[in-house]
Amino acid sequence: MATILLVVLGALTIYFLSYFIKDIYRNRNNLGKGNYVISMIIGFITDFLDTLGIGCFAPTTLAFKLTKYLKSDALLPGTLNIAHSIPVILEAFIFIRVVEVSPVTLISLVIAAIIGSFVGSRTVVKLPEKKVQMIMGIALIITAVLMILKQQGLLDALGKDNTALGLTGIRLVIGIVGNFIFGALMSAGVGLYAPCMAMVALLGLNPLVAFPIMMGSCAGLMPVASVEYIKVGEYSRKAAIGITLGGIVGVVIAATLVKSMNLEILMWVIIVVIIYTGISMLIQSLKGKEEVMEV
């Protein structure tokens, strides 16, 4: 059944690329402002971190804010989903093949996330910039809190001694509902990794099982959500191209170096700046006058 899931993810990749490439070609003479070198560096770093389970949405949001890459925060959800789709799909292919997990659990949770993203993306594209800023601000702070819990070993403690490789009964239902919600939120730019990791541990699964579930979920939902953003043009094309290219390289390198890396200090630096970024976005969302970020 894992092979079937990989075939489905392959089909979704083709579906996504057919829209993405067509949109880039159609707008080839007007791809907007942005720097390919900067976006490739951002993609390399954030998808490197993503492969290690840190997540890519919050670090990418941070990078965009620091470099003032986007002209508007309203472009964040679409850019995040479109830019990281291919690198995350590559991650999914790697982890689904090497980590053992119940096929029923894996496929059920991935499908739930995909449906959630489809519902969520059709709502988020209609939101004004202030609403997106508020959602992203709250999401970043929640993400930082979950990252702190993980750094302190509290999330790991939830899954300590867990050996189950699959869910059944009411636990499976809870997992499906949870991943549906996470999928819907991810279409708004809220990372799925941390909440999914916490849910997997709470439901009694081996924490390692979170990797194929969360990466498979993202690989399935991101192409679906991305197409909705591509249709309305709500994303930075240059950022998406650069991050995709840099991200692929980051994933390949991270997959080979993950066992020898010490990310303790880096994680705390990221947490501090993510909190700062989240608070800044909340403040912007509460201001009366619409502010537009410079490119």
TrEMBL record:
Annotated TM spans: 36-62, 102-120, 132-149, 169-193, 205-227, 239-258, 265-286
Superkingdom per UniProt: Bacteria
Keywords annotated in UniProt: Membrane, Transmembrane, Transmembrane helix
Protein name as catalogued: Permease
Species whose genome carries this gene: Enterococcus termitis
